[in-house]
Amino acid sequence: MTRRRTDGYGRGRLVAAALALLLLTVVVRPNIATAESPPADRSSFSPDKLTRVGEFIRNEVATGKIAGAVMLIQQHGRPVFFESFGVRDVESGRPMTADTIFRIYSMSKAVTSVAAMLLVEDGKLGLDDPVSKYIPGFADVKVGVERRDESGKPVLVYEPANRPITVKDLLRHTSGLTYGFYGDSAVRKRYANSDLFDGDFDNAAFAERIARLPLAEQPGTSWDYGHSTDVLGRVIEVASGQSLFAFEKQRLLDPLGMTETAFHLADEAKPPRIAQPMPNDRFGGPVAGIRDPMLQRRWESGGAGMVGTIGDYARFAQMLLNGGTLDGRRYLKSETIALMTSDHIGPETGIARDQFYFPGETSGFGLGFAVRTSVPPNTSWPLGEFRWDGAGGTFFFIDPRDDMFAIFMVQAPSQSGRIQLALKTLIYEALGR
């Protein structure tokens, strides 16, 4: 499975859309401050051009590329487009609705990153803290270097790390930890053939196992997408004294009203609400170790394990867009949000980017998000936009310049890169950019 870059450089009738819009207005409960009249220099959406967004998604359903989807575009604290399309699952024929549950895969990373920053503000976690302070197994990590022996055969040599992995490294993916489900380097193969996902393990066991594997690069030298956020989940557990989900539920999910977001589906009534990909567009096995969310397992993957609804993620996105507040409650300082959404791997840092570098050449990476640092060719997309996506096709982006965000929920792994680029183009055309 090859993960696609995040940039690339029917239930859609008026009555249903109106009901859906009303539903999300209730679900999202926008902060009053975001619903004020927009500043004069901000763009506004063209209702006529927004119809092209719906037309595109309806065509994706009609041509059999996706089973169904839910799309939300929200500006100034209110939905400007919210519609459900197609079905949750072509085999059951259940219609797609606003309360459909999706596997959000790597969109979990943003939630885990915010949870970590809550602890940073609490003074229980430091960005420059060595990970070994919380997980002793990381005190003696090794870096895997490919060399050739006397016969010319490639071998993997383990070398000492030049410095400790820090919490900041986990947040910005510069720890050297990688994934084993794509790429063919010797280190990635070592991950793929390890015992990382054997049995029913918890976050502590996962951290112990991965600490024994070699790093793909020296800490702090290269952006490499991998299990960093999973390890961050264990750091959160140690620093907070709670399980990852218990901490996130207490400090973030429940206060935000994200009651449908979890690592597993404990409620027997929820499985019929899960969206499924087309039968010919399903992963052949677990991705990054993530299995069926209906199976109760102890591992809470902060990097890719969450499921949730678009309404839940909308409240999370609005809080971020508001600079850390929602409904009069502050979750993070505005300075913390600004820090998280600034580029931390720019040229001045000397940090390289691996051959895959999913954010694309016009983006850097912050503490949990890709961050727009230059305008892509042939677009007028704004600087400062931050975003991420999931292997199943879900994506979100938050645009402070235009006081808006968009979330697309779908389960269509092979279509994700193409659809994301097309929708983003249509959205900004509707915004007049």
Automatic annotation (TrEMBL):
Superkingdom, taxonomy of origin: Bacteria
Record-linked SUPFAM superfamilies: beta-lactamase/transpeptidase-like
Pfam families registered for this protein in UniProt: Beta-lactamase
Domain Beta-lactamase-related: 56-414
InterPro entries, per the entry: Beta-lactam-related, Beta-lactam/transpept-like, Diverse_Enzym_Activities
PANTHER family: BETA-LACTAMASE FAMILY PROTEIN (AFU_ORTHOLOGUE AFUA_5G07500), BETA-LACTAMASE-RELATED
Protein name: Beta-lactamase family protein
Organism name: Bradyrhizobium sediminis
